[in-house]
């Protein structure tokens, strides 16, 4: 059996994004509040504050 993929409206996405931008809740708390699966990032995410490898040399 396959899962049914949920589609979220633009308004809903904006609400979640604004709540996440405030930064007063963790991603797990936001996921529970908005009833969406939690996002934990990927292991390939760089350390916060570092420039990506494709950034211009003056940003590295």
Explain this structure.
This protein is mostly helical. It has a domain at 8-37. The chain is built from two helices and no strands. It has helices at residues 10-22, 27-34. 0% of the residues are buried.
Could you write a compact summary of the structure shown?
With 60 residues, this protein is mainly α.
Task: Quickly list its features.
mainly alpha; globular; 60 residues
Share in helix: 25-40%
**Biggest sheet statistics:** none
Q: Mean of the pLDDT scores?
A: 76
List low-confidence stretches.
none
The count of DSSP E runs of length 2 or more, i.e. the number of strands, is: 0
Instruction: Please state the CA-atom Rg, rounded to the nearest Å.
Output: 16 Å
What class, by secondary structure content?
mainly alpha
Give the N-terminus to C-terminus distance in angstroms: 46 Å
Residue share in β-strands: under 5%
Q: Counting H and I runs of at least 4 residues, what is the number of helices?
A: 2
Order of helices and strands: HH
**Morphology call:** globular
């Amino acid at each position: 059996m396959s899962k049914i993929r949920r589609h979220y409206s633009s308004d809903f996405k904006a609400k979640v994004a604004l709540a996440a931008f405030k930064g007063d809740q963790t991603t797990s708390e936001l996921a529970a509040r908005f009833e969406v699966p939690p996002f934990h990032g990927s292991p390939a995410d760089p350390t916060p504050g570092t420039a990506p490898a494709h950034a211009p040399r003056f940003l590295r």
